Amino acid sequence: MASLEAIEGMFVEWRHMERTGLKKAQEAVVPRWERTRHFRIYSSKLIPGPLQTRAYITAILSALMRRRGLRDDVEEAVQVRVDKQHVIHEGDHRFAVVLEESVLRAPIGGADVMAGQLGHLLTVSALPSISLGIIPLDADRSTMWPVEGFFMFDDAEATVELVSGHLTVTQPHEIALYAGAFAELAALAMYGKAARALITKAIQAVDG
Questions:
Q1: What's the pLDDT tens digit per position in 181-191?
Q2: pTM, 2 dp
Q3: Is the dihedral of CA 79, 28, 175, 165 positive or negative?
Q4: Could you give the CA distance from residue 207 to residue 145 in angstroms, rounded to a whole number?
């Protein structure tokens, strides 16, 4: 029974989390962002929130609003997400981000939005608070293939976005599994000039 109660507390359906709109859902995670010192983020689908441009955020949240039939508070929700990004510039927050190269090739919001987002990625990758790794398309995935995207907040919790809802992991042994997966994925990634070259190549592809 205890295990079942723990599982129930870990998972929240989007329809409950967003029942009052996207703005409240964005605001709910602000304290977690502000208290975390070490972020580990892996994404196989999208540029993650801390590194998104306003236009990219607008495209994503507008699509979510339409798909889930939510009331339109996209503009307010976008501002909350933009405001949250102060953590990459202030304090002693550190971000280790690993992306699949395919994320750079997924056109979100159209060519202009994507080109702007990729250019922004180049800029923020130079910040001292951010370590950006990109796993190239031709990396050998024999031992570690792409997995679900996740955020790790220090060693306290990990969150995963599913189609139906939001999963929060807090059990130490599960946190250790995500930490191990992140380390393996990070080992496959390219950094520095090599990562910037992959982003530049993606920009050139967008520009045609």
A1: 999 999 999 99
A2: 0.93
A3: negative
A4: 30
